[in-house]
Request: fold
Amino acid sequence: MWEIGQCFLNGLFAATKPLYLYYALIGAILGTITGILPGLGPLGAMAILLSFTLKMDATSAMILFAGIYYGAMYGGSTTSILLNIPGEAASVVTCIDGYKMAQKGRAGAALTVSAVGSFVAGTISIIGLMFVTLFLSDIALKFGPSEFLAIGLCGLAFLVRLSGGSIFQSFIMSLIGIALGTVGTDAITGVERFTFGVRDLGQGIDFLPVAMGLFGIAEVLFTVADKEAPASPKKVRIKELLPTREEWKRIFAPVLRGSFLGFFIGLVPGPSPIISTFVSYFTEKKLSKRPEEFGQGAIEGVAGPESANNAAVGGAYVPLFALGIPFTPAMAMVLGALMIHGLTPGPSLIKEKPDLFWTVIASMYIGNCMLIVLNLPLVNIFVNILRVPQRILMPIIVLVCMIGVYSVNASLLDLLLLAIFGLSGYILRSAGFQVAPLILALVIGPMLETALRQALNISGGNLWTVVSKPISLSLYAATLLTFILPVILKKFRSAKKAG
Amino acid sequence: MNWKGEGSQRAISVVLLALSLFYLLSSFKYKVGTYKIVGPGFLPLVIGILLVVSTGLHLVRVFRAKPGERKPRESAGETADTGIEHESMEGKESAETAAEGGNYLAIGGILACTAAYPLIIEYLKFVLSTFMVGFAMFILLKPRSIVLSFILSAAMALSCFLIFSRLFGVALPSGPLEVFLYRIGS
Reply:
């Protein structure tokens, strides 16, 4: 415990270096902006900015990305409350009661509650992140390829189950992601696969053009398709920001509940920030003494979900740092940034690069402090970003995507891939396919293949030995349950209704 | 084009199956190995088979579906199967709904610009190709003034060149104009 405190203090000291403070601030601002802009979520922002991290050191890149992720959660709530437009998917629930509060003239209070809840949740999740990551990474050091294979497969299966849309279509997307991951030189035998004589494909399909295409370019196309309706946000006066004493009392428990719920849901594979907001909303509605107020401007309906989505961000970092496996598409982006710098996260990273781990953790806390300062007094400035015409913003984003992709490998193939995946992302998403499983599968596919081959080699070719290890078996069973349980429950409910 | 329509869904399912078959057939080239020493062709073969089976089933489902039966769900980015429908979801939905009857020229133009950029950058070099692509996109998105679009795209091309080449040290395709700008920038 004492040691953890000391490490955190060392991290805090390192995180206060001007350069790291600068990146934390830039991340917080960019995150808030992307959170405010409908369509461009943290995932798109990270994809667009991935190439910009090339010239940074790994710690700065992590700090920037953490700021973007947290900032987007803060920023998303602003437009949900003021305009009934969720800046990003995790703020959809906030619209329900947040906008109603704004209509009743309590927009300032809703914004403050959202920011304070996010801050408290961020703080709790960072504490959780420290302890759970260290605990889990110690255990993970004993894991072999069989366990990593199980974790990777289960993570992917959970994402397919929970990412929304058709499970079957998401399954196809994850298979395509794994298939794309097999392109290039085989890491074990050196055999070139699916390169068809294209030399640049020998290094494999880079994560960057795929991510930027599916999320960056496709998002621009969706925005362009939408008829531009200039937003007219109302001004919020500073004196309106303070909630009443009664409101402070009412948010205390929802904020705490949302924080813990969010953190633990964040540990589960899938779009955890989004799921956590819905779970928190329903929990608060169920526990509330005034459930009839929900949907009419209940402050608990803002405080709980806003705390939950921020806490889920901290939770989502745990599997990445402790196991080296991203459970969410945004974490796949963070993994991509680390890999660009030649680092592979996982239990050994914390042991080998403790400075990076603790500085990033401490900077998350600093970023949270920056966000609460940025978001409340400057809320009117941020909302005005919505007034920038899309006809100016969108070409800039496309150009940044193209130059960003080119700047990593100076490869024309990457630019072509960007166009191909931009078009594919637009078509697939329009047709109802989820592309998040594809991106996650592309990142963890090569890891899964290596783990599978190593595990089979160690077990002498016995597949049962690979799957029957206690941890692996429990994970496979848990995954199976997530698919079977909803079906059983549905049948049980319909039988109960019929009976 | 309406990608939610029956015809589009069918076209997508056919393309997916064709790509899966191509992947599976290509995977036969690589050695599968044994259970103990798995070869480079093992995973591609397994994934190829799974892909063909699942995209085949998808195709059957799409072709068998009665009109109006299949409704694409929420699809933008990270979304969850939460079972809540709310009016504010309209933000994301509207983008897709608008795509049905929306700005095809701009969408096609942006895609064409993205595809054309790698083809022209080697010949026209960075600044000119970035300017041209930027200008085309500004025009496609119906600017208030062509002069403003010209100025904006020129400013974008120049600032991007200076930021990426000088600040990030990226070696961008350069001709006499880029060399000249690089010297000025330094």
About this structure: Chain A is about 75% helix and 0% strand. Chain A has one domain: 2-468. Residues 173 and 438 of chain A are 5 Å apart (CA to CA).
